[in-house]
């Protein structure tokens, strides 16, 4: 069973890791820890844009977190705004087959339960990439590419049948 650690600046209800496990069809085991990333955020902040350089942070951390405390994947939930070159912003980043997923929450904010659902979707989406999934053309699938917050709200936390079938083989 693959082990996932969520390090988060955002406070979630205690059943949050269980929800991540549920939507990943219990293929994984999830733990969660509260922390802050003030040091990393200031190190990777683009002062001119006021945003965190998501891809630079990912490149810096990726080789450093492989096998971190015995976890297969690490998810950082960063309460800030991130971008990659060529985009105004990103909700999250992860490499195909990578060990790390970053989720940026500033543009996901809303009423509490909506906020948590949006973050849950972005975590599942980036974990999907880290396990090897590409984007999906089904707008209801969590692997659909979110260009806007409306896209995120329209898609489910669920993986479509096709993506879940693929995920089952990839996670093994
Ligand atoms: Zn994506
Ligand atoms: Zn899909």
What does this protein look like?
- The structure is a single chain.
- The chain is α/β, with parallel strands linked by helices and 172 residues long.
- The chain has one domain (2-171): Collagenase (Catalytic Domain) (3-Layer(aba) Sandwich), CATH 3.40.390.
- The protein contains six helices and eight strands; from the N terminus they run E-H-E-H-E-E-H-E-E-E-E-H-H-H.
- The strands form two sheets. The protein has a five-stranded mixed beta sheet, sandwiched between helices.
- The longest helix is centred in the last third of the chain and has 19 residues, at 112-130.
- It is globular.
- The termini are close together.
- The mean pLDDT is 97.
- One zinc ion (ZN) binds at residues 136, 138, 141, 143, 159-160, 162-163.
Percentage of residues in DSSP E strands: 15-25%
Biggest beta sheet attributes: 5 strands, mixed
State the helicity in percent bands: 25-40%
**Helix-strand category:** alpha/beta
Going across the biggest sheet, name each strand in turn: 2-1-5-8-7
CATH homologous superfamily placement: Collagenase (Catalytic Domain)
Q: Sum up the overall morphology in one term.
A: globular
What is the first-to-last residue Cα distance?
8 Å
CATH topology: Collagenase (Catalytic Domain)
Q: Would you tell me the overall average pLDDT?
A: 97
Can you tell me the CATH class?
A: Alpha Beta
CATH architecture, by name, is: 3-Layer(aba) Sandwich
Residue runs with pLDDT of under 50 for 5 or more positions: none
């Amino acid at each position: 069973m693959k082990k996932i650690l969520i390090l988060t600046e955002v406070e979630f209800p205690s059943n949050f890791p269980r929800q991540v496990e549920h939507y990943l069809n219990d293929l994984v085991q999830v733990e969660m820890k509260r922390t802050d990333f003030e040091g990393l955020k200031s190190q990777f902040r683009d002062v001119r844009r006021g945003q965190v350089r998501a891809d630079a942070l990912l490149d810096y951390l990726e080789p450093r977190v492989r096998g971190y405390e015995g976890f297969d994947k690490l998810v950082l939930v960063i309460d800030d705004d991130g971008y990659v070159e060529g985009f105004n912003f990103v909700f999250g980043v992860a490499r195909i087959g990578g060990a790390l997923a970053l989720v940026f929450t500033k543009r996901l904010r809303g009423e509490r339960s909506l906020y948590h659902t949006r973050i849950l979707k972005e975590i599942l989406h980036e974990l999907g990439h880290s396990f090897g999934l590409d984007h999906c053309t089904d707008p209801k699938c969590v692997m659909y590419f979110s260009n806007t917050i409306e896209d995120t709200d329209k898609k489910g936390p669920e993986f479509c049948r096709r993506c879940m079938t693929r995920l089952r083989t990839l996670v093994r």
